[in-house]
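2.7 Reproducibility. Because tokenized structures are sensitive to small changes in the input, we list the exact sequence used for RNase H type-1 domain-containing protein, including any N-terminal residues retained from the expression construct. No trimming or masking was applied before prediction.
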Amino acid sequence: MNPIFLPPPPPFSFIPFPPPSPTSVPPPPLNCPPVPPPFFPTISAGIHWNKPPPGFVKLNTDASYKYKCSRSSIAGVCRDENGIWMFGFSSRVHSGSSFEAELVAVREALKLAWDKGLRRVILESDSESVVNRIRTQRIRQPKNQLEEIILECQGYGSRAWNCFIQHTRREGNFAADALTKKLVSESFDLHVWNQPPKSLSLILLADMIGMDVPRHGALDKKQIGQLKVLKRQLLARNLHWY
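Resulting structure tokens (single pass, no recycling of outputs):
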């Protein structure tokens, strides 16, 4: 049968990962020295980037749309279960809307993850409409370029891997948002970042320790000061940080 008449692949599954059940910790014996806190403490319970479950990587995507010239920049950041940088990408793209730009970012992220052999992936976008369209829209024959891209994204859902797509708040997508502003040239070629730009150093550290990021996407002076102190402590322990 011609593939065009087959039903579309199912939308990406979304499996919420429940938090681990609390366990009771016995009190320390008397005269026992206090246990030092972990080196990367979680300093906030608010909205921020969350690490993926063990064995998974998390791939965040974002896009910046320029209405006047119908030109956008897209980016993605991939990190492992410890929040360590694996790769990133950025590129200029032609797009007719912010929705299309966000959609292209998701497609490029899926393609890169598959080509790099990653098979347990959680992809996050802060565009709820893009996530919903990919997960729910039924397309037998695309009528326009947007539907072609949606169908291409859905096609990755039928491949032999564990790939989940979900929406995240803007506060949880700060690193990908920052990378949309770090284009290496005016070219429309996709650039893959094997190492993060220096300007993302504090942002990645903030994500790793669970620091809240304001919705406008800029760390305040107090947060920057805390991160610089932590970065110096890492270097003093000969622990590499970007």
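The two ends are 52 Å apart (CA to CA).
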